Amino acid sequence: MKLKNNRISFYSTKNILVIILILISYTSCEEFVDLDLPPDLINTDKVFENEGSAQAAMRGIYAYSSSSSAITSMFKFVGLSSDELEKLSYNVEETMFATNVIASNSSTISNIWRGFYNIIYQCNNLVLNVSESTNLSEDTKNQLVGEAKFMRAFCYFYLTNLWGDVPLSLVVDYDVVRLLPRSSVAQIYAQIEEDLLDAQNKLSSDLYTTAGERIRANKWAATALLARVRLYQENWADAETQASAVINSGFYELESLTEAFFATSRESIIQLANSSVNRYTFVNLTGSTVAAPTYRLTSFIADNISSDDGRRAEWLTPTLNGVYKYKTYSNTRGPETTEATNILRLAEMYLIRAEARAQQDNVIGLNSAESDLNTIRSRAGLLGTTATTKVTMLQEIYTERTRELFGEWGHRWLDVKRTGQADAIFGANKTGWVSQAALYPIPFDDLERNPNL
């Protein structure tokens, strides 16, 4: 729908979050009609002239993201696409991902694609309106634009790694957005880099707006995501530099395996907050019973986690190797603690730096790939690595990534693809694998609406 005069109601700080999300839903509808609104409404640009409501708009983006199927599907369906996750029984959608024969009319494919683009639209809308605001302070404008650009970069990172060439949308004009062609992976990464560098400059190094919670992006969140981007681009030197900046910032430390996914975890660089008073996340993979976990590791992955590895006891169910990193299924189940969805955490930074150092032939010794890898192994109760060459060290790092990052954000799927091993590994572990399955199909409805795709 198109809102005549583009106005929304301003009731209170408590309600503005819902109002802004409703506005965004209206302005991104597929069919456009004129709609008269009641006379007690104000122009949307006024929302971004007010400190409280502008902050609420940013909180609205995080709130939408925390329950968006684009986010929740990353853990489940992308895990099924790789050789990482399996189930005792599958529905039609799950079967498509597990067998890597995904129809373009898959509702899950559509939900992930549109979910990410919906977040991007909201970020574009905020960047535009905040940048043009004349009442907000420069500090506030920098913070909000920096956060929005971090989230936009985050979404584009997954879009291009799941689909390859995708439309690059930086505006809110429907007539422009609806006919965008696909941009190359290189163009998408260039925009991701630009957004993250700008976010680094704009965001505070120590800003966490709610005491004890790390639910909004700061400079280190942008730096951590940039470290990952540099790794994927094989810019080893800068991947090491960016990861080191986060590790040495003094804001983060590895937690015990038990507390790594708590809302209070000092390992978390940025999390998605739970909605309302919920103690649980939307990405619990175990299900309602530990004895019969909904999602479990395949034997190929589980067999790499030895009995003396603390992650087996802490992060897997006692039976069937169920993924048990997030343990609280609902408000009435689980430990008396609050969990929050980790977007980025410190352990990944050590693994990024280890890989970057190994690629630069800094394999063993002080401040090397060996020392970083052993930091992660030690937390899991394992002895130090025995790898001494670049080839064996890199293989150890890849294996350690599967042990440390399983069940999170489709890391296994992306790692195997970015290292050029998809055909060799998935071909050996998945029946009927074909190279084309490494990229998801663009949703059929979008292909029909946009001939430029």
Automatic annotation (TrEMBL):
Q: Classify the main location.
A: membrane
Q: Which InterPro entries match?
A: SusD-like_N, SusD_RagB_dom, TPR-like_helical_dom_sf
| Keywords tagged on the record | Cell outer membrane, Membrane, Signal
Query: What compartments host this protein?
Result: Cell outer membrane
Q: Does the keyword Membrane apply?
A: yes
Pfam families to which the protein is assigned, alphabetical? SusD-like_3, SusD_RagB
Limits of the RagB/SusD domain: 324-436
Question: What's the domain of life for this entry?
Answer: Bacteria
Q: Where is the SusD-like N-terminal domain?
A: 86-231
UniProt KW Membrane keyword: yes
Similarity comment: Belongs to the SusD family.
Protein name per the record: RagB/SusD family nutrient uptake outer membrane protein
